[in-house]
Amino acid sequence: MTPDLDLQLSRQIKASPATVWTCLTTPELLCQWFVPAPWRCAEAVIEPQPGGRFYSLFKGPDGEEMPNEGAILLAEPEQRLVFTDFFRAGFVPNETPFMLADITLAPRDGSTHYTALVRHRTPEDRARHEEMGFHEGWGTAADQLATLAEGL
Amino acid sequence: MTPDLDLQLSRQIKASPATVWTCLTTPELLCQWFVPAPWRCAEAVIEPQPGGRFYSLFKGPDGEEMPNEGAILLAEPEQRLVFTDFFRAGFVPNETPFMLADITLAPRDGSTHYTALVRHRTPEDRARHEEMGFHEGWGTAADQLATLAEGL
């Protein structure tokens, strides 16, 4: 971790890495935890392989739509998922790359230790992400992920 | 291919994809073709896996040194090598991403059809790369690769 470029949070989730992995890579499940209310994830496409598409469509309470087009860079089942908006599917560069998410799952005491490491190009991008509410947003999403996985 | 963002060139190499692949992924061999004279490649590190390090050190005729730190994104032996300066090893973002190279090898008539597709974030970056001498530089390198592979 590079303190001036990265943001990170962790959660202990009372479910197996296999279950958490399913929640990360199944579109209908991803949409149940990925976005903090009042926004919601209306649609997702996840191709868990290097260069695969990682797409999600966020919808706001007033009908706003925010499509997110990115790529998976690494998918190690039950262990690690890396995705980014630096590229779209097939390694096509995005003009305005902002972040890369490196999510790791580790078995711990019968549960899963979930860590989201989010990396940026510049200290300014990191600061902007933090100001946009990284800890609340990704934190709420992680809590929602835990609730979903623990109920499966 | 996206015409305003990509540059591309191809060569027919009279060697097997396995031999060309060896020239792409063995540091001592890469250094024999990767840089057009009078510059030379003095050192390379290639970790052919997603997130692996792709490093090369170019030295100029007057002792100039140009280190290039990037990452491999995909390594499909004898078929496809994707590397970029968007990240360093371990998916650490670079502040000034410039290009991604998607190299494919295809068997054709007992030879190898080599294609280097080089992608950029913006039309300006593509134009800059073309003005820097993409076709001469990557073309000379491809010719050197062919000569090396055909002699192995």
TrEMBL record, chains A, B:
Pfam families: AHSA1. Residues 14-149 form the Activator of Hsp90 ATPase homologue 1/2-like C-terminal domain. It comes from the Bacteria. InterPro entries: ASHA1/2-like_C, START-like_dom_sf. CDD domains: SRPBCC_CalC_Aha1-like_3 (cd08896). Belongs to the AHA1 family. This is Uncharacterized conserved protein YndB, AHSA1/START domain. It comes from Vannielia litorea.
